[in-house]
Amino acid sequence: MLTQVSLLRNAGIGLSRKYRIDLWIKGVGFKIRSREQCVLTKKKVFLKLSLGYSHLLKLEMPKGCSISLIGKKKLFFNGICHQELTQLVAYIQSLKSPDPYKGKGLNYKYKVKVLKQGKKT
How many other CB atoms are found less than 10 A from the CB of residue 119? Predict the structure, then answer.
């Protein structure tokens, strides 16, 4: 019962003001591109990720989420459903999680990351 109440409360908050999650890229070879395709009047939004692998990763975005891309390093996700939005961003971050020593990879903007100390000489 408590879970249903919290889901309804989150949906009400999402309708009044959208949820927003910021994802920043740190690293030399990492880039993001967004592309829209209209196939039989159905608009699909794809996210192309270049994360240092030998190939591009292509993800289709769900209908409830919108993407704002600033440059090639800052990505903003907006959506009504908090649960779908956090699952999507967590999946994208799991593709290239931050390096514990230098912090390179996909990082949340407001999350404080404590880096490990390097080799002592």
Answer: 5
